[in-house]
Amino acid sequence: MGIVVQKYGGSLLSSLSSIENIADVIVRRKREGNQVIVVVSAMGNTTDHLYKQAYKINMSPPKRELDMLITAGERISMAMLSIAIQKRGEDAISFTGSQVGVITDNRHTNAHILNVLGDRVREELGNGKIVIAAGFQGISTEKEVTTLGRGGSDTSAVAIAASLNADICEMYKDVNGIFTVPPKFSKNANLIKGLSYPEAIAMAKYGANVIHYRACEIAAKFSIPINIKMLNSQNGGTLINDEVNIEKGLVKSVIVKNNVAFFKFKDNEDLERKNRFLNALKSSPVELLHLSEIRRGKNFEEYILLSYYDKRDIIDFAKLVANSTNSKVRINGVKAVSLIGVGMINNTDIINVSYEIMKENNMMPLYCFTGDMNITFVFGNGNIEKAVKSLASRFKLEYEKRD
């Protein structure tokens, strides 16, 4: 009997009829002879609605209370889905993140998972039940309810799959997988049918919003295959697993990330200023994407790219850092365009061609960060559509139209 973890996003749980359809899929998977654990997000826009209500009351709501509030959304989904499954004659039971034993650190609104105990899940699976778990949430080492930040339900699903040594984690989305170009910029982008873990991590981190990079990191650590697909899709989808891409030096996708901020430090201090910045980052929901340093004697410049979900978080962080460091920050209109592929840094032609495309489109970047898996251009001008389309065309990331 295989162990299957399924994850359903909020858009798929937006109505009672949708929940009924999902219950059919789950029951069918169980009757195929599998032990099934289902991880759910909140229904539709429930989480956003709860956030807005909190901020109407208080423009700076305590983060602990925000976590207490928004975890209600997943609890509604898990209970409704359990009811629908039991209506179909299968035993099911719903659990909150704390009941599953998802143990996190103590950061509210952006906690990281430390461990998944899963004792009650194993017990109920042994009793023949389908287990429905609330994603996006856990309990901290200080016994506080916490949430996992953007993409938290993806992370919950893979962490639970790892704790149970599941055969696969199936993620049902409103798109049929990860594409070579964001659908917003291309109707002819190719579906990527297979990704290695490092490729998936890079794509998720730099803007492929189909799955969260932390989920991919956990999958890589415990070798949990992830299959991303649409509900009731018989074909297609993206499979993420241990397979190694031997085509090094090729561009596999162009990715766009909107919620980024560009910091520039110019100073002659050393570790003290840097430590202040890094310590501020530890307690913030803002995440570090890149850091590059240029030294000239005792003086140095640092260029830093940060990622955020809620603009209020990056504004608060920028104010905090500005008070203790010599820094300049750009937030409004900043976007990152990344080319993703294995071993690209060793292919200088890719960088040269990319800069030619930028010049052709009169779009010179503020800065360029490089890594083994990515070349990332940071723009201060929000109009990047031409550059993205030109990159996609030049690196053959779209299928040819047929008349």
Which strand order does the major sheet show?
A: 3-6-2-1-9-13-14-12
- Kindly report how far apart the N and C termini lie: 48 Å
The tally of domains stands at 2
Rg, alpha carbons: 22 Å
Question: How is the main sheet built?
Answer: 8 strands, mixed
Short précis:
This protein is α/β, with parallel strands linked by helices. It contains 12 helices and 22 strands.
What does this structure look like?
With 403 residues, the chain is of the alpha/beta class. It folds into two domains: 3-174, Acetylglutamate kinase-like (Carbamate kinase); 255-394, VC0802-like (2-Layer Sandwich). 35% of the residues lie in helices and 27% in strands. The strands form five sheets. An eight-stranded mixed β-sheet has the order 3-6-2-1-9-13-14-12, with helices on both faces. The protein has a four-stranded mixed β-sheet with strand order 5-4-7-8. A four-stranded antiparallel β-sheet has the order 15-20-22-21, sandwiched between helices. Helix 6 packs parallel to helix 8 (213-222), helix 7 runs antiparallel to helix 8 (213-222) and helix 11 (348-360) packs across helix 12. The longest helix is centred in the N-terminal third of the chain and has 25 residues, at 63-87. The model has no long low-confidence stretch (mean pLDDT 90).
